[in-house]
Specification:
Elements: E1 2-4, E2 29-33, H1 41-47, E3 53-60, E4 66-74, H2 77-83, E5 89-91, E6 94-100
Antiparallel strand pairs: 1-3, 2-4, 2-6, 3-4, 5-6
Length: 102
């Protein structure tokens, strides 16, 4: 399941085949993997300091706990590309994988 912190009415999991570039029709969305299970929305915003997240969705397990994955939609594609530079940086003691959502 995907839990949204905002309602946008658009799918956050679309993208082109190239995982590092955003095409003209791609949504400016990145996927994060390896998040601490207790991560908060504010910690994700802090992780992407200077970039404008307009929607954030955390994936949850069947039992309702966070899965360690989330999707972030950015203000524009340029910011989404900058977000990819956070790949393998840490939140707490966990390094976070950041890549283009497909």
């Amino acid at each position: 399941a995907v839990v949204s912190t905002q309602s946008t009415g658009k799918s956050l999991m679309r993208g082109s085949a190239d995982r590092s570039k955003f095409g003209a029709n791609d949504h400016p969305v990145v996927k994060m993997r390896g998040l601490p299970y207790g991560v908060t929305e504010s910690e994700v915003h802090e992780f992407f300091t200077g970039l404008r997240i307009v929607d954030l969705k955390f994936r949850k397990k069947m039992n309702g706990e966070l899965s360690g994955e989330a999707y972030a939609r950015f203000q524009n594609q340029a910011e989404a590309v900058q977000a990819l530079d956070k790949h393998h940086q840490c939140i707490g003691h966990r390094y976070i994988e950041v890549f283009k959502a497909t």
